[in-house]
DNA sequence: ATTAAATCTATATATTTAGTAGATTAGTGT
DNA sequence: ACACTAATCTACTAAATATATAGATTTAAT
């Protein structure tokens, strides 16, 4: 299961994607729009900034902005920053590789093959999905379009 | 990431799959073979028994046995018992469905579509993988075969 | 100078994870 | 019937993680 923090992060990024190219966006604006506790959101955005996804501006007229186009922010990138490894175990992680302390021998581990398959299935979805996709997938706008067509 | 408990469970089940049809297996035997803390393993096996995967016999000559063929014990079944939902969020879970308290409106949630895709990618691997697969995938026997062929 | 905004530091609480200890119950073989 | 063995149950504990909150500080614009 994805953490609440990660969901908050993705929702916040969606808002920033909507405002992409329109200048800095206030934390308070995002917090209110997505019902995220403001102080918690601060920490999340800071984390995303320190990892190169966002840029920030202090002082009056400041706020947060995407540092790259929505189509370049993949879910895997975001989830790695917020929740850590995407792989189901460290021993098959590409970005957080480490030995599993509960495994006597990595070469003979019976689970590795399955864990790798599982990891790849995840990556196949999460690498390809970007903020662009949740913009398009936003049901609110779909609904509006449907209503217009009706 | 999968919990240590879940890894223990899968490894223990692998042992039980190896001994399938040969009568009860001792907790101590499994614990030692897979280097799992015995008391912790007890709880895990009990949990699997209470959920219909294992059957147990008390007293002398007792132990644990698979209640079904290795090919019928899927990873998804095991992981649901030990770690809970496989889906990345409750709102897209098939076995543990629940509203996400951080979501104002399920219909307009921008993440749902992606979460569903992600869930399906997971299930596609985990439903199809069974204990039978980790028996075959066990590198120890592969190594032996390779050595024999060399 | 005043104001508005992000940033930093510290703290708090609840939940989950991983594990231990000891008593109890139920079967087996003698 | 009895001793033994193995699962089962109950109750803890420690450490890590998740989910926040409070308040002071820094930075920039007007």
Automatic annotation (TrEMBL), chains A, B:
Keywords: DNA-binding. GO terms for molecular function: DNA binding; DNA-binding transcription factor activity. One of its GO terms (cellular component) is cytosol. This is Rrf2 family transcriptional regulator.
């Amino acid at each position: 299961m994805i953490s609440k923090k990660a969901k908050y992060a993705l929702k916040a990024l969606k808002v920033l994607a909507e405002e992409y190219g329109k200048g800095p966006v206030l934390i308070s604006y995002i917090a209110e729009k997505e019902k995220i506790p403001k102080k918690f959101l601060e920490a999340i955005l800071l984390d995303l900034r320190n990892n190169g996804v966002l840029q920030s501006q202090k002082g009056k007229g400041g706020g947060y902005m995407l540092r790259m186009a929505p189509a370049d922010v993949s879910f895997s990138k975001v989830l790695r920053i917020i929740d850590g490894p995407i792989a189901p175990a460290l021993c098959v992680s590409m970005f957080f590789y480490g030995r599993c302390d509960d495994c006597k021998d990595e070469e003979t581990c019976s689970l590795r093959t399955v864990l790798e398959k599982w990891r790849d299935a995840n990556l196949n979805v999460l690498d390809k999905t970007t903020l662009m996709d949740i913009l398009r997938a936003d049901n609110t706008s779909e609904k509006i379009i449907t209503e217009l067509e009706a």
